[in-house]
Structure formats: structure tokens, C-alpha cells
Amino acid sequence: MSNASFSDRLVDRLAQAARVTVLTGAGTSAESGIPTFRDPDGLWEQFDPQELANVNAFLENPALVQGWYAHRRKLAQDTEPNPAHHALAQLEQHLDGFTLVTQNVDNLHQRAGSDDVVELHGNITRNHCIDCERSASDDEMEAIAEGEPARCPTCDGYIRPDVVWFGEMLPQEALQRAQEAATQAEVFLSVGTSAVVHPAAGLPLTAQQHGAYLVEVNIEDTALTDTADEILRGQAGAVLPPLAEAVATRRSTA
Ligand code: OAD
Fold this sequence. Notes:
alpha/beta
């Protein structure tokens, strides 16, 4: 099935499931004005990720990488969660066994009210020292404005964002929670992700192999489209609010 409108079967399954898991990607924040990674105007089209998003590049030019992340952090902080983020926060309220797993680092799910977000790729609003791992405040990041790398006031190490860079491991606790939630899900929604970056991209397939009803929400075909059980073709901010509303109604009338 491929349509922006969802099936009654999906509403029933969501309302009745003991475990529902959602994986979100950059497309979920696109309607907030944050560029995605692989679309034509995506971040990676304008910057070489190998140049900026790996630890060697950071050590070679910390001020440049800190500056790029400061720009992205400001973009995220200056924008607002969109209806897709709010709908997922609403689903969390209505469903007991609900797990939200995100590849996004923009903190918009949390700002929309999602209480328990599994952050697979970290969170751009946090920073820490690469040497002593002490958390760094926004004030300590201000040094970037002067063109010098921001350094830890305790040990003088460079300060880096709490995000996963190329070649780095994902936070193991988050990955384990995500894999458990995928394995146990009766319904799995893959929202606004191209589903090509592993290990996150493996989660929808793991869920389906363990019996989940797999739903894709995306504006276009992805690596997952052929295998999904239901495809909701449209913007996440248009597709998810009526779905969350229908689930809430079904739950209240059950
Ligand atoms: P991508 O940029 O690869 O994919 C974004 C997806 O969102 C595409 O499939 C678009 O079709 C879809 N999309 C765009 N606008 C949408 C909308 N309004 N509603 C629904 N879908 C929409 O982003 P990700 O899949 O999140 O990793 O990328 C995964 C990872 O690749 C990122 O987390 C990042 C990058 O390397 C790290 O930085 C570790």
C-alpha cells in the first residue's frame, strides 16, 4: 500500500500493540528548516563530511569543526519542533510500550515533549572535553567567536560536540536499547530516513524479521520501500498528526 493516508489496520495495530518503536531521521526535522544529509540541498552537499565530521579533521582544525557545529547548533536552537515531532510526543503519551529512536542530533524531539529519546548519533546541544570528558557549557564554547578553538577550563583539552563522527562507535547503551526495541516491536515506523546508514538502517529490518508490521513515512522511495508493509508517502509533518490523533481516539473509545 502506498498512500499518504493510513489504513484502519495500522491504527488498530498501533492502538493495540504492546510495543511500538519509531526510528526518525533528518527528514523528520526538514519541515523545521534543518537541511537533511542526502537531499540535493542537504548538509553533505555543501560540506565534505570527511573534512569536518571525523576526529582527525577535528584535531587538525578544531576551530573550524567547532565553528561548523556552532552554526548547526544555532540553526537547531533557532528553529521550532514541527507537527511531526509533536505527533510523536503525543504517541508517546498514548502508548505504553513506545520507544522513540532518533538519528537526529538537533534535540527537536526533546523540545517537542518526547521524554525518553534514544539518541543513536548523540546530541548537538551537548559538548565535552576530548581529554577529561568534562561537560562544557555554552559559555565555554564562546571562545569560538574569537577564532580560537574552545578549550576545557579544567585541563585545556579541546571541546567537541557529543555527536558520533565517521569512524566512531555509536553509544553502546543507546544502540542496545534501540536493538531491543526493534526486536520487540509489534509496529515499527521508519520516519524521514534514507535508511542507508548502519547500524540504524538495520533496525527496521530487524523489527520486521521479528514480526513487526513495518511502516515507512517518507516523501520518496528509500532502501526500505520494497520491504515495508505500509508506505505513507508524504511529509512527516502532514502524515503523522492525523495518525497520532486517530490512535488517541481509538484508544479512548476502546
Ligand atoms: P538523509 O538525508 O540520508 O535522508 C533524509 C530522508 O528524509 C530522505 O529519505 C528524504 O526523502 C526524507 N525526507 C525529506 N523531507 C521529508 C519530510 N518532510 N517528511 C518525510 N521524509 C522526508 O538523512 P538520515 O537518513 O537521517 O549520521 O541520515 C542518516 C545519517 O547519515 C545521519 O544521522 C548522519 C548521516 O551520516 C551521522 O552524522 C552519524
